[in-house]
Design brief:
This protein is an alpha/beta fold. The protein has a domain at 30-272: 3-Layer(aba) Sandwich (Aspartate Aminotransferase, domain 2), CATH 3.40.640. It is 37% helix and 12% strand. It is built from 15 helices and 13 strands. It has helices at residues 30-42, 60-73, 84-94, 112-119, 138-144, 164-174, 225-235, 238-241, 262-293, 321-324, 328-337, 354-357, 386-395, 408-423, 425-430, and strands spanning 77-81, 102-105, 123-126, 149-155, 177-181, 189-190, 193-194, 201-205, 218-222, 299-300, 315-319, 343-344, 396-399. The strands form three sheets. Strands 1-9-8-5-4-2-3 form a seven-stranded mixed β-sheet, with helices on both faces. A four-stranded antiparallel β-sheet has the order 10-11-13-12. Pyridoxal-5'-phosphate binds at residues 83-85, 88, 109-110, 112-113, 155, 181, 183-184, 205, 207, 218.
Length: 432
């Protein structure tokens, strides 16, 4: 790769550090090719049928993947879905949460973590985040509990676990369920236990951007037989099946088609076998990046609380503009010009989205946010959660630079670009 490490920043007319864009990450190998060929030659491409009986639970590849997943993470049930989002829908449905119920969620996450609550006719209530881990702040969670609260949905953001001891203690005290959105932190550990397996129901994603992926896919995990069955009913036309399940007494349910194909399951199985290796690669690069950046005034590198391991879906930094001598916007602009786009924050706080601002999810009604029979008053005002707003709009910068199969050389170039930008901070600011 042709690089320019000296001289003026690209934003001031110099040569960009990176002369061509980094290749897109691709982690599919011969094992996945062989697995898909096996399915394509042997068929069928999906093993599900939406009636009670053996095929209600999916085909051979789906069941093999689910069994391996359950064994890997040490849970009783792993139920595959066709995306992490539909698996999240399953977590809420499994617990029987619906209209007039509230679920406390973090605002710094992919919208699906809150929208899955609305999909079930329930109300997401946002609590603020911890300024160092970016996961739910237990103190804020406590403040958001009302008589309608039924569950806390934690998101293990960017690759490490939320403070699960504190969350589980609050849940116990108030008789609430705990759901773990673990889309971003597969195989991260909290005090020796896998994130995603500590609460009542957990969820994982296998979408193309995740460390282990099959294009699109998700998994719900639980140790509870009834929750697992309700998830399976949601996944596969439950309303048509439930009458034929003798003794079913886990409450009303209807389903959809959220079924994983045999091809996806075959790929997901192989990727799961490589998860540890993929994570180790990413952790190694992220720790190397952290070491290169530590000591630069105005940059705070990732904080990992005692007892957590971090698998770095994102490597997130906090910027103190006055100490850095450069605004966050200008830093990101200058790094993009060098060939290294940086995220200004992550995604905007979810309650800023139009559906929450207008309280409209279904046509012209305000259901489920306001209607006769529900007396709650969730607060979606912009500015209402100061920590997430400060981090997102002022301080946080995120990169996925360390994705497999990138190398140390890529990180070195990133650091060269950053140092070049910082060496010219005054000229860059003056040129604005
Ligand atoms: C925190 C979080 N939750 C949920 C999802 C949804 O997963 P999927 O894209 O597999 O539907 C994602 C995916 O980006 C995510 O990052």
């Amino acid at each position: 790769m042709d690089t320019e490490t000296q001289g003026k920043p690209a934003l001031l007319g110099g040569r960009p550090t990176l002369q061509e864009p980094l290749p897109s990450p691709h982690n599919v190998g011969e094992e996945e090719v062989a697995a898909t060929a096996r399915v394509l030659r042997g068929g069928p491409l999906s093993g599900f049928v939406g009636v009670a009986g053996d095929k209600f639970y999916g085909g051979a590849e789906v069941r093999r993947f689910e069994a391996r997943f359950a064994q890997y993470f040490g849970v009783k049930h792993a139920v595959s879905f066709n995306s992490g989002t539909t698996a999240l829908h399953g977590t809420i449905a499994a617990l029987g949460i619906g209209p007039c119920d509230e679920v406390i969620v973090p605002p710094y996450t992919m919208a699906a973590s809150a929208v899955c609550v609305v999909m079930n006719g329930a109300v997401p209530v946002f609590a603020d985040i911890d300024p160092r881990t970016f996961c739910l702040d237990p103190k804020s969670v406590r403040e958001k509990i009302t008589k309608y609260t039924k569950a806390i949905l934690v998101v293990h953001l960017f690759g490490q676990s939320a403070d699960m001891d504190a969350i589980m203690a609050i849940a116990k005290e108030h008789n609430l369920k705990v759901i773990e959105d673990n889309a971003q932190s597969p195989a991260a550990k909290y005090k020796g236990r896998y994130a995603g397996t500590i609460g009542d129901v957990g969820m994982f994603s296998f979408n193309v951007n995740k460390v282990a992926q099959c294009g699109e896919g998700g998994v719900l995990v639980t140790n509870d037989d009834n929750y697992a069955l309700r998830a399976q009913l949601l996944r596969n036309h439950g309303e048509s099946v439930v009458d034929d399940l003798p003794g079913y007494d886990a409450g009303p349910i209807f389903g959809s088609n959220y079924r994983m194909t045999e091809l996806e399951a075959a790929v997901a199985y192989e990727q799961l076998e490589k998860l540890e290796r993929f994570n180790a690669h990413k952790v190694g690069l992220c720790e190397y990046l952290t070491a290169q950046l530590s000591g630069i005034p105005g940059i705070t590198t990732p904080h990992i609380p005692e007892g957590n391991t971090h698998v770095y879906f994102n490597h997130a930094l906090l910027i103190d503009e006055s100490k850095l001598g450069l605004s966050r916007d200008l830093l990101c602009k200058a790094m993009a010009a060098e060939g290294f786009p940086l995220g200004k924050g992550y995604v905007k706080p979810v309650y800023h989205l139009r559906m929450f601002q207008e309280r409209r999810a279904f046509n012209q009604t305000h259901f489920p946010f306001e209607y006769d029979g529900y007396g709650g008053a969730p607060d979606y005002r912009k500015g209402s959660l100061p920590v997430v707003e400060r981090l997102h709009f002022k301080e946080l910068v995120a990169t996925q630079l360390c994705q497999y199969p990138r190398t140390k050389e890529t990180i070195d170039l990133f650091v060269v670009a950053l140092k070049k930008v910082l060496a010219h901070r005054d000229a860059l600011s003056a040129a604005q």
